[in-house]
């Protein structure tokens, strides 16, 4: 595996921009506006990458389409986190044979985390011959060049060289509009949790420069964005590679000092790197949302050690306790893996007791899925699927009860929300903690902060009346 991060030179990116101009001219000569469909799987990092893919396509003259049917270019931005995510992609790529048959000029590209695995690229090469191009996350900035190659030669291209990763500033972005936006502050991961594929497919940790991030956030605020989420696999190690003496808490504080009314969020935080300074910074700024996604994965020390998480249950709990001592209304969420190789029922029950103790607002729960090439994939895994399913159900039932109880306690309270959309007869809005609230009102309230009295609840959302 390569270990050196590459900074993509501005000349290289200018070259890509020139290629976009050539593709635009090609379509102008053909006398029509081409259409592109970009489909995204996986997490917000992939959503953020898709905004870049759409940005590059728009610069090449493409209009975005709602479906694959009839699109001139289809891009599937894939996720490799679990078997199920990969199976969905294979199923959908398979189905595109028919779509392409109906539109023979159609070009199909696959990118994203699955394409960071050699065995997947090999399979696409051999068994999915209707796919025209493949690029892994490190090659994303070269998409215009790859597209031009495929359009002008009608040959296939595979840009999947291994690399520690790159940083490319200035790729055009096409965001989907609305009042929220994601901003990537760093890429990659150095943690190598033993079950996880991300470090292999997304390369080493590398941070964007603070001035580039600040400029992007300023631009978003000028466009009316009111809810900004800073993204990274482990935002708490932001800046370590830059050597500028700026850590994540410093970056957060600096962004929160920008003028205007907005909420600032971030994800994801690794508990081993979460600091008191970070909690204090959050507590000190009204613009930093009091929401923390702090994946614990397991409540058992032996399992945590096998997962290579590098914290204990006690350390995790004391972090939560400190966070809540400085922010009593902190909304806490987490990720849990059920059925890690070798996990016993008693160890699973430690996870159950931890969630009862912490009382998270919400949980993202996953059954362990072996990932080729990760250490956990070769650990003995005696528990049956049936047992794991039963543990999973117990966990979800317990969490649903807790979430419901927390939601019930909101009824009668007035909360500040940011209105972000319309759904049927209601407006949808989010609280500072990221909770969904529905209430009646006109669509032109979208983008406003307002007070809402909570009148009803269920497990996942709240309903209310504007004050
Ligand atoms: N960087 C983040 C999240 C990465 S992936 C973090 O460190 O927390 C999101 C979640 O997917 C993880 O938190 C984990 O709970 C889950 N996950 C990752 N690999 C998995 C696997 N092989 N099987 C099941 N769940 C997995
Ligand atoms: Fe995966 Fe662990 Fe990195 Fe998160 S911190 S992306 S779980 S290796
Ligand atoms: Fe999936 Fe890649 Fe995200 S593996 S969860 S899309 S970082």
TrEMBL record:
CDD domains: Radical_SAM (cd01335). One of its GO terms (cellular component) is cytosol. It catalyses: N(6)-dimethylallyladenosine(37) in tRNA + (sulfur carrier)-SH + AH2 + 2 S-adenosyl-L-methionine = 2-methylsulfanyl-N(6)-dimethylallyladenosine(37) in tRNA + (sulfur carrier)-H + 5'-deoxyadenosine + L-methionine + A + S-adenosyl-L-homocysteine + 2 H(+). Keywords: 4Fe-4S, Cytoplasm, Iron, Iron-sulfur, Metal-binding, S-adenosyl-L-methionine, Transferase, tRNA processing. One of its GO terms (molecular function) is metal ion binding. The keyword Transcription regulation does not apply. Its cofactor is [4Fe-4S] cluster. [4Fe-4S] cluster 2 binds at residues 189, 193, 196. Residues 34-152 form the MTTase N-terminal domain. InterPro entries: Elp3/MiaA/NifB-like_rSAM, Methylthiotransferase, Methylthiotransferase_CS, Methylthiotransferase_N, Methylthiotransferase_N_sf, MiaB_methiolase, rSAM, rSAM_horseshoe. The keyword Membrane does not apply. Residues 408-467 form the TRAM domain. Binds 2 [4Fe-4S] clusters. One cluster is coordinated with 3 cysteines and an exchangeable S-adenosyl-L-methionine. SUPFAM superfamilies: Radical SAM enzymes (SSF102114). It is found in: Cytoplasm. Pfam families: Radical_SAM, TRAM, UPF0004. Residues 175-405 form the Radical SAM core domain. Its EC number is 2.8.4.3. [4Fe-4S] cluster 1 binds at residues 43, 79, 113. Monomer. Belongs to the methylthiotransferase family. MiaB subfamily. Catalyzes the methylthiolation of N6-(dimethylallyl)adenosine (i(6)A), leading to the formation of 2-methylthio-N6-(dimethylallyl)adenosine (ms(2)i(6)A) at position 37 in tRNAs that read codons beginning with uridine. This is tRNA-2-methylthio-N(6)-dimethylallyladenosine synthase. It comes from Candidatus Avoscillospira stercorigallinarum.
